[in-house]
């Protein structure tokens, strides 16, 4: 069995390019006792992976040069020496960026028996959806009376966050980077959408969209977005820091918002989180999300690239705003 | 009865100066039924007052041009038509920046029967001490195993915060702006003191002072201090934002720290607070602080200017680092 894999071959400064990656074909060895062969059917590309391209200590180890990268994927067991995962079993795994791999089963999770397309388990009902749900419900302690601002509202996490906040009864404002994305976000029922590329003064646009101020900011972007959110936040507002994509490809450190003192005077709370810390909440999350999906109350937004040959292009596209909803690679 | 008062006569941009203030003598009217005449004996000058010189909406109304300012003070009732506050009663009040005033009693609080100098009720066992205590125990949820970094450690709030954190069993690191202040902070039992003016790279100095990282940052300064703290914080660290004095006199907005993304990757919590929200905790605070003071476990650090003629000088001195501990004006 052959496996096509994407290796990291050099560390980017600033925006990564195809030159940082290499597509390699390897031959997998024969299965040992207890092992299974998994063929991945879908893989995820995520903004956080940009940070793993930097060689530094963080909450997750950096990718190693000359080695295959990893990340979320779903696949099917095609050969099995492990009764827990028979041939045909559909599994989620963290061995993305490759078409096939051998596992002893420890890093595999059987997909729940829910009538949903497999790739949803990488997105709306996978880590992406859990991230949105944790940020709103556990970090920001969402209440129905809150006005919620979601940056990158058309993104993988943002699009789910918007929908969850609407289902909680909140007034929701989203920011996006194109009119096409604005249409998509409006169609999800979001109350006001700002195209930050054409809005001019973002603080002013946000103030107009939320004349009574915002109570919760779901932070995906950083920079000017954070500055605007701080300016428009109400007293005791909560900021759930999911990521700051504006910083990821910066050549040099980007200055933070000039109005951080508002955290003091408005008595704000700004809290960062990493979804890994909340894996024990997955079942509780699925308990809410599965019915929402079944009833059509939440829709999965997806952008799909086909073939591992296009995985790098899909990944790079994240930083050019090429995705609407979850960016996926079909293998 | 005459009262000398400090009026705000113009709004500063950047560093305030004597020209923004005026000393005015007024004659107080005769007492009405229910009223008392209070002669202030001590008044407080505090960094937060700089923000009240700006005409904008905030948690506390701005000072009005051409009118007397206000702030914390303690005084003595010298004439009384109110049995609740007989002549000789010692009262704390928020009618500082003046030598005497008339009150109906609603804004007066009798000083507790504790054997402490009156001015301590403006400092270590007043709002200043409560601020330090709330920031550490309510906002940062201090634990004995924490390593705590206090900026402006020789300041009014900072010097109390350092001592409370030591009494909780924490390892404490303080930053100060002179070697003389460093000596004072060391004498309080703080484990490591950084003179940020001579330390060179603050992040490096902080890392050396806290080789195992910091868990709690008590933020009084902002700017470079916050950037260094973020860099050296441990996962799940907590930042209690009491103030950012570095920003108060800035002519133009100062950029925030370039490493705010660490709030996400280190899963930090940064929370602002204003002591007013915790007045209901004052008794609980006194219950801890009064015995500490009585037993000599906490010492009050004070810098005293004499006479209302020097109140503006005392206030301006706050921004030049002229105070060790609480800055007070004896009237």
Automatic annotation (TrEMBL), chains A, B:
Pfam families: ADH_N_2, ADH_zinc_N
SUPFAM superfamilies: GroES-like, NAD(P)-binding Rossmann-fold domains
Enoyl reductase (ER) domain boundaries: 14-329
A single GO molecular function term of this UniProt record: oxidoreductase activity, acting on the CH-CH group of donors, NAD or NADP as acceptor
Protein's UniProt keywords contain S-adenosyl-L-methionine: no
Record key words, sorted: Oxidoreductase
InterPro entries linked to this entry: ADH-like_C, ADH_N_2, ER, GroES-like_sf, MDR_fam, NAD(P)-bd_dom_sf
Source superkingdom: Bacteria
PANTHER family the record matches: PROSTAGLANDIN REDUCTASE, PROSTAGLANDIN REDUCTASE 1
Protein name, entry field: Enoyl reductase (ER) domain-containing protein
Protein source organism: Marinobacter zhejiangensis
